Amino acid sequence: MNKGFFGKVLWVDLSTETFREQNIPETSYRSYLGGYGLGCELIYRNMPVHTSPFEEDSILGFFPGLLTGTAAPLTGRFMVVGKSPLTNTWGDANAGGTFGPAIKKCGYDGILIEGKSNSPKIILIKQSERQILDGTDYWGKDIVLTEKLLKEKFGTSVRIASIGKAGENLSKISGITNDHGRIAARAGLGAIMGSKKLKSLILDGNRKVNISDKSKFMGHVKKYNKNAVPKDPGLTMKYILYQLPNMAKMLRKLNIGMSGPSNIIRSVYRHLGTIAGNTISAENGDTPIKNWKGIGMYDFPFEKSIKLSSTNIITYKVRDYGCFSCPIQCGAILKVPELGIEETHQPEYETCAAFGPFLLNDDLLSIIKINDLCNRAAIDTISTGVTIGFAIECYENGILTKKDTDGLELTWGNADAIVSLTKKIINREGFGDLLADGCKIASEKIGNGSEKYAITSLGSEIPMHNPRVIESLAFSYAYDPTPGRHTTASIDFFDIGNMNTFIKELKFPFGWKWSAKRKQKAQRKVTAIHQVISCLGLCLFSSQFGNYPLLGLINSLTGWNVSIEELITTGIRIQTLRQAFNIREGVKIHTNELSGRIIGDPPDTKGPNKGVTIEYKKFYELFCQEIGWNPENGYPLIKTLSNLDLDYVINDLYELI
Ligand code: SF4
Fold this sequence. Notes:
Elements: E1 8-13, E2 18-23, H1 26-32, H2 35-46, E3 60-64, E4 78-83, E5 90-95, H3 99-105, E6 111-114, E7 121-126, E8 129-134, H4 143-154, E9 159-162, H5 165-168, E10 176-178, E11 182-184, H6 189-195, E12 198-204, H7 214-228, H8 234-243, H9 248-254, H10 262-271, H11 278-284, H12 296-299, H13 302-305, H14 310-313, E13 317-321, E14 331-336, E15 341-345, H15 349-355, H16 364-377, H17 381-396, H18 415-427, H19 431-435, H20 439-446, E16 456-457, E17 460-461, H21 473-479, H22 491-495, H23 499-502, H24 516-536, H25 550-558, H26 564-584, H27 596-599, H28 617-627, H29 638-643, H30 647-654
Parallel strand pairs: 1-6, 7-12
Antiparallel strand pairs: 1-2, 3-4, 3-6, 4-5, 7-8, 9-10, 9-12, 10-11, 13-14, 14-15, 16-17
Helix pairs in contact: 1-2, 2-24, 2-26, 7-25, 9-11, 15-17, 16-18, 24-26, 24-28
The structure holds iron/sulfur cluster.
């Protein structure tokens, strides 16, 4: 009997309306750790080369992590995987909540959707029942109403992942939403679901993962949770937490970022969530301002950014919530009487930044409203905000006029116009249709010099963290197989969480910050461990919460005896396979270049990033050498592929040269 996994995935073919179970050998689980690593292997092996994301052969996978569905702390997350319609590269998008564990409860380690339907469909997997049903009644409805109607029909215990209006409209910046607003947002994977005419995936099961050594496993869980559950911080600490935004100017002057002891960081996440960074990051140069051409302290000064502070947002909080099996619970539900909203998710930092400082918008209520609209429509808030920033700059420079914008006065900080345009993008209405596939595609249609205002990496809008503050983000923005992402491995970004404390066995080279060679060795480990974290279903924030019993949990769950070295090899294997996927698709990611605005070329002449220009190309070359890829073209070397047991990839890559 399998221990730690079910040993099978479910394939659903929407063209033939059939289901098929595939048994997966244990060697695959050990090689790819289950989760999205397994998804990567299955899509690589089964999707024909050069399949367009909207073609019948395109595969969309839903993969909980190896630890998802168990009591292992912070592991309730899942990945949606496929070929990104936005960038035509490998695409993945992560979400939390309860949907990932629900896949496991149905007795599967992953669900893969292939084929296409001609009319709206929903898929129901309930205990041993599997059905493809007519979804016409739900098509066109927002995800909150869709979930309500589906729960009324199929019972309150079902867990649901759906597309909203954006995915139905094949918007290449659309995502997939579960739990009323937890969204696997990036890479435009919602549009694949829309192209297949699949509205919702509905799950209800009661299977449990077999645990090899339950007592050891639960020992690790209890020990971690004993320390991890944030205690009531007391009045003084609460006062400091709520005063954090007011310290933004001082923190900037002292050049202090958002790191700190893990017990304090856990409290910050519990009480404030990611919005703790709102005002501080606008002030210290991390948040991009005015489509990457502004400087926070001058263009969006403290008097404006403080209006978007965590302290102001949590006045609307009615309760905390979080993902399955998470002791931190960093999310919150808001009630906003001014907007007539009874219940909505607290916006995350990325959303507040993309619709706030990025657009010079200091109207907090407009941002909460937009967050609610985007969640209901299941559209990526980073991409939508950045695309609106692009449109505003085109308008500012006369490339677009009121005639083009359906009469909208598209100026910086015009909250009403930003809300209206968001609705138009969601509905592909008028001018919104032009922007609904992100700013790169819009600029190709608009032409007239607009391309320079479309700040993307291979079409993916860049998130709300500035490489001039977190240096190696430029490298991951440019060169990760899912380009333009802050959640991929960047040694400087992960250092926020102090990786040596997180997983003691990793043992980073001493003084890595001050030696290019050591930094590359550290980057290799971070790249690998990031893949491992994603495969396990572990929340990326976990790296900030102190020591995590990674090896203990994996080994007591599965009965394996994996070492940190084996995990690092596994992580490199998955990253190499993602790279190979892109090369096989003809993506020349090694020639990718970032806009000068992102890397500070030319550098700012004032402000917190004054004089800073980021070098990222050489960093990538050194990384390629470290990881066993050819630094000239990013191809994994044949011996690297062989050493990683990726021999099946060799012919695909080397036929091309
Ligand atoms: S820290 Fe937040 S995002 Fe991470 S698992 Fe917990 S609730 Fe989910």
